[in-house]
């Protein structure tokens, strides 16, 4: 069906009348309490921005998952990035979110203020171009993210290899959603009874990997978009399944997602990267939850090139980011929230990332009761 050029799709997906109708439908279908987790930090921000959690019936509790790539990047990997960025012959490239994330001692903003060559880029391919323009410098790109960002990271490595660049490398902290879902659902502390899966991840990877998860743990998984009506539609689908004792994978984001995803992107990912164990900030090591460079592309591995593998560190004890990322606590239940931990003085990444749950609560719901 052709798209109507005069139709405002964005406005339609934020239509308060449609949203109210979906909320009423949720109320009609719910008969008991349910805990749903949205995986993606972008979804968390949309929920808080539009007050969707306030519109839902009290039987529905939304908890926030580890779907913020900045937030789950472990502290030791951030310290490795800082160690590399402080070297005088390095141009360190990163997305803007990472500049204010605190390491053990500094952040990338402070390193840049002291003369470090830290640059914000909008794509890893920008870093490849910088490497071409500065053959006398080592150019490093901080490759963080879920499956959504991995194709571009793979493309940058392939392009650098094709150009014969020997001064370009990436520091990888790439993570995968399905292993994280296994870790959450397999925990003895788990409270999650249904997932709202991240639509943008599924545009790349599809949702075929979710079928065995839904069956193994007996949880509905609904692929969901990011607008208010997307999220409410996803919640309604999950509630209907829960109320009917069904545990299926359902696609509520059909305008963007197919079951198999973008197979060309997946092929490129698999050419450059392979699964590896990855440490998640505040959670710990999740087996096969990361993507590391294959042996054929080891020359582009900044961690090995700069010998920073040995760096280890410890999280600040007062920060409960790990519990928040697992859906065990809400940001405003943290004793440091809004006082010792603020966007201008963050203890952890969830307070400064544009997808962080703590930043969403600080921005949209600072005055909510901590028991909500």
How does this model look, in words?
With 372 residues, the protein is of the alpha/beta class. It has two domains: 16-318, HypD, alpha/beta domain 2 (Rossmann fold, 3-Layer(aba) Sandwich); 321-364, no CATH class. It contains 17 helices and eleven strands. It has helices at residues 9-12, 16-29, 41-49, 52-55, 69-72, 75-85, 108-113, 124-133, 150-163, 177-186, 199-205, 211-217, 228-243, 263-272, 302-305, 321-325, 357-364, and strands at residues 34-40, 60-67, 90-94, 117-120, 138-145, 168-175, 194-198, 221-224, 249-251, 273-280, 284-293. Strands 4-3-5-6-11-10 form a six-stranded mixed β-sheet, with helices on both faces. Helix 7 (108-113) links the parallel strand 3 and strand 4. Helix 2 (16-29) packs parallel to helix 13, helix 3 runs parallel beside helix 17 and helix 9 packs across helix 14. The radius of gyration is 21 Å and the shape is globular. The relative contact order is 0.17. The model is unreliable at 368-372 (pLDDT under 50).
Describe the structure in brief:
By secondary structure, this protein is an alpha/beta fold. Helix content is 38%, strand content 19%. A hairpin with a 3-residue loop joins strand 10 (273-280) and strand 11.
In CATH, the homologous superfamily of the largest domain goes by the name: HypD, alpha/beta domain 2
Spell out the helices and strands N to C: HHEHHEHHEHEHEHEHEHHEHEHEEHHH
Structural class: alpha/beta
> What does the radius of gyration come to?
21 Å
CATH architecture grouping of the largest domain: 3-Layer(aba) Sandwich
Highest-level CATH class of the largest domain:
Alpha Beta
* Envelope shape: globular
